[in-house]
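User: Okay, second chain of the day. Same drill as before: sequence in, C-alpha cells out.
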Amino acid sequence: MPFTSNSDKITREYFDSLLVETRYLDAVIPSTQMTLFGESFRSPIMTAALSHLHNTAPDGMTVYARGAAQSGVVHWVGMGSDRELEEIVATGARTIKIIKPHADNREVLRKIAHAVKSGCMAVGMDIDHAFNAQGGYDNVFGLPMKAKSTEELADFVQASGVPFIAKGVLSAHDAEKCLKAGCAGIVVSHHHGIIQYAVPPLMVLQDILSATGGSVPVFVDCGIESGMDAYKCLALGAKAVSVGRHLMPLLKEGAEAVARRIDEMTAELAGVMARTGVRTLSDMDSTVIHRRVF
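Assistant: Same drill. C-alpha cells below.
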C-alpha cells in the first residue's frame, strides 16, 4: 500500500487497522454516561473546537452548540467574537472555549476572563497553532500568533480559575510540560493535519497516558466518524472524544440533525460496548483491541 504525507489519511488508516474482539458472556446493557469536571453528560462523544461555521451554514456556530445541548454532551468552540461565544453559551451547551496562542498575552488573558465570565465550564489553548509552514510565527485571520513557554502556559492556567486544557498535544514531551504548567486536561490532536506525516493520535495515546499517569483526563480529536472510532479511543484510555468535520455537513439541516448524529454515534458506541462486555466507560479494557499488520 503506498504511503502518503496526508496526516488525515494516515489517521484514518490507523483507525481502520485496529480490530476488536468480542466478549458476550456475563455482558449487560451498557451505560455511556460520563462525568467530567464534576458534571454528568449522556455520552463521551463531544463536539470539536471548530470556528467560523457561518461559512458552512447561517448561524452555524450556534446551530452546532444547540445540537450539542440537545444531545446532552460537552461542546467545544474555537475562534470567534465575544458576542458569538455569549450566544453559544446561551444555548445551554456546556462549553469549553479554546483560545489561540495570540502573540499578545494580554489578549489571551482577556479572552480567558471573558470565557469564564460568559459561563464556560473550562478554557484552553491550541498550542499547535503557533507556527506557519515556513518556520515563522502563524497569522490567523490577521491575528499574529506566537509559541508559548511552559511558564506562560502556567500563567494562563493560574489566571483561568476554571479547568484549563491544552489542545494539540501529540507527544509525551509536551504532555509532561502541560502537567508541569498545571493543565487540567489534554487533547491529543494534530489539528486536521497541521503538519504532514503527523503521528495518528491513537498511536501516541499510550505514551501520553503514561506521561500523565491518569492525573488528568486525556481526550482524542481528529478523524472520528463513528461510535466504533470513539470506542477504540476509549478502550485505549481516552476519557472522551471530539467530533467536528463529520458533523459539519449536517449544519444546514439544523441543530436537530447534529443532535441526531451525535445520538446515533452514542448508540453505535453502546452497541460495541455491549458486544465487548463493557458495562460503563470506567470498565473499558484495552486488551480487546488488536492491531492488524499490513
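The chain has a mean pLDDT of 96.

User: Thanks, on to the next one.
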